[in-house]
């Protein structure tokens, strides 16, 4: 029956509030990328507010569903038999004349002039153990639309495996279920009847998480009694007990409660489903975020390692310069002496001796140190790329086993596409990473960095030439020493002064060399290390943006679903509080 004929003012306001909340649920499900099936189920349950009361009869074939409906209607409207006679879903409504009309391949509309149908419609479904899966699927679609579910089982097979599985699937819809145990006429003793009743009641309680109303009847005797007018046989069939329950439950208040409560049960089920899905997706994104943080932390540690390694390796270069400086100071102490004045006058020889004894192999050693730093840097950079590729690939593999299914299909596709794109970019970067080519490129960059310092005026091509030419000038032009005065003056004043000057100039040039070289190497190599880290971060940046933005969106969506769960529960409480007028 429709509600507008019987609602009080307070119930009318409750209906308005429910419609408003259900509209919000519909919008929230759309944002949650709910499946077309779920949105259709919610829409159908909302439409039921404006339609006749819907009683859906379910159970295995041969449990007596059709016989039960025939007994209620008082005529053989539906075919009965021991084989799956109900191959279609029958929607039975009131009509001035009896008529049948196919509605699609598996649904049939039946009209019957029976007064009971003026206030309700009855749906007869194929068996829960139907061989055609389409029938079972459509049966499950009708359950969310129902106002009351009558579950018919048989005393000879109470709660079969298919019946238990079906009840577990529909339990979540929050529908009121009435259990009818049919065929008690085949049970011999009252003790057997009591045993069957206890068994069904216990299993019904466990399967439905509630204590459902339960009736034991004989539908065949009830129909026979109705057709023959045998009141005594009708009472023995116990069908009047079911009719009394339906009559009491479907009074005005009962019908209002069921009508208003059923869409709320559907909404609660769907909200729970997509709230759970959002939670599962957030778990995935939290793990994604942890992966990103691990990668970023790994890169931060890598940067610290690079700096620490640079300090150690540059200290080795600095030590080479220090040793060269010490040899230079010793050289001046040995050469700028009175007894070696003739040697001081041979400028080219003096320079050659200085380069051989002081500078010596230092340029080559420094170049080797720099080359070892470059090799280490390139190898470390390659290792970081390999690590990123492995982490992204692992996340792809881990999630494949956790796909939610028909929930969050868009999320799955977006995330999988992002991981594939980022993983592909990382793998391309790794594939293109040629260690020899990269080492040569870094070496050229470092060489340019050194050449672009204050040493550029020497026209150096390599580090070794730069050092040799720069330090070579520290031998001091000693030409003209003899013109300065007497030998005594040379020995007492001029040579010591020139020796100190030469040492001072050597220290100055070495210090300048050290400062310029170290700065150049730190900028060149340190810049390369930072560029390598930045390239990796740029590669995973789209993934990071997706994870962080999607996480915020999902958290907002879940909060909205949680709020709506609360609103739906408040409405259900108000519906349950309705009392008879």
Portion in helices: 55-70%
Following the backbone from N to C, one meets helices and strands in this order, namely: HHEHEEEEHEHEHEHHHHHHHHHHH
Q: Give the strand content.
A: 5-15%
**Alpha-beta classification:** alpha/beta
Strand order of the largest sheet: 3-4-2-5-1-6-7-8
Number of strands: 8
Rounded radius of gyration (Å): 46 Å
N-to-C CA distance: 17 Å
- Give unreliable regions as ranges: 453-492
The profile of the biggest β sheet is: 8 strands, mixed
- Mean pLDDT across residues: 77
User: If helices are DSSP runs of H or I spanning 4 or more residues, what is the number of helices?
Assistant: 17
Morphology: rod-shaped
Word description of this protein:
- With about 575 residues, the protein is an alpha/beta fold.
- The chain contains 17 helices and eight strands.
- The protein has helices at about 10-30, 35-45, 65-75, 135-145, 160-170, 190-210, 220-230, 230-235, 240-250, 250-335, 340-345, 345-360, 360-400, 410-430, 435-450, 465-470, 485-575; strands spanning about 55-60, 90-95, 100, 105-110, 120-125, 150-155, 175-180, 215.
- The protein has an eight-stranded mixed sheet with strand order 3-4-2-5-1-6-7-8, sandwiched between helices.
- Strand 3 and strand 4 (about 105-110) form a beta hairpin.
- The longest helix has about 90 residues, at about 485-575.
- The chain is rod-shaped, with a radius of gyration of 46 Å.
